[in-house]
């Protein structure tokens, strides 16, 4: 096939997959695709997956989508979560690059399932199917143990952001933009300090949209490309980093290409 649709999403329904719904709505009859679940790191995991399919010659184009309607599973009586999150969606289209040394150069991905208990949706699925008990216990809303999530995300997102630069022989001065997952300003600050990146290179939009989960990175990338006074130019380096439920986290190094 020529096209793949890879998305990380809050589905409109349990099945079919949201990738199927998108494929139908945009009329991409020859495309195939699937949903990928990695919490707030979902866009980064999907981006690396799609890039490898293109590099392997399996597909020519890939539509990578990050979308979450997190408001549908938020408990608005819980002030520790309801003021944090927002709904959003963003997508990028990947194609083979005509010159080597551009595009997605490197990525580092991690997962630690032991952290799943601290940020999760307790009810639903095969383990805790919806029942009178799960509804009464309000298990179908986002649960977050904020202290543990913050502690782990600060250390791991900062570490992996620095690691991607170090193993590619770069420093914070070499990159044009750092695009982090928009979870918390203190987490973003810790990662940017670890990379020694100047404040004006860090793209932040959490003040406008909140934490839009898997949509936060593509939304921030959109703002860097189309809304900043200094959009990336051919040859510019961009670092992406994210941390999410699972726990999942990672970083990616891009080198901008523009015809």
List the defining traits of the structure above:
Peroxisomal Thiolase, Chain A, domain 1, single chain, 4-stranded mixed sheet, alpha/beta, 8 helices, globular, 259 residues
Polypeptide structure, described:
The protein has 259 residues and is an alpha/beta fold. It has 2 domains: 99 residues, 3-Layer(aba) Sandwich (Peroxisomal Thiolase, Chain A, domain 1), CATH 3.40.47.10; 152 residues, Peroxisomal Thiolase, Chain A, domain 1. 31% of the residues lie in helices and 24% in strands. It has a 4-stranded mixed beta sheet with strand order 2-1-3-4, with helices on both faces. Strands 5-10-9-8 form a 4-stranded mixed beta sheet, sandwiched between helices. The protein has a two-stranded antiparallel sheet with strand order 6-7. Helix 5 runs parallel beside helix 6. The chain is globular. The model has no long low-confidence stretch (mean pLDDT 91).
Count of individual domains: 2
| CATH superfamily label of the largest domain | Thiolase/Chalcone synthase
State the end-to-end CA separation: 25 Å
Please give the CATH architecture of the largest domain: 3-Layer(aba) Sandwich
Structural class call reads alpha/beta
User: How many beta strands in the DSSP annotation?
Assistant: 10
Low-confidence stretches: none
Helical content, roughly? Answer: 25-40%
Query: Would you list the SSEs in sequence order as H and E?
Result: EHEHEHEEEHEHEHHHEE
Overall average pLDDT? 91
Shape: globular
Q: Class of the largest domain in CATH?
A: Alpha Beta
In this structure, how is the largest beta sheet organized? 4 strands, mixed
CATH fold-level assignment of the largest domain: Peroxisomal Thiolase, Chain A, domain 1
Radius of gyration, in Å, reads 18 Å
In percent terms, what proportion of residues is strand? 15-25%
Strand order of the largest sheet: 2-1-3-4
Number of helices: 8
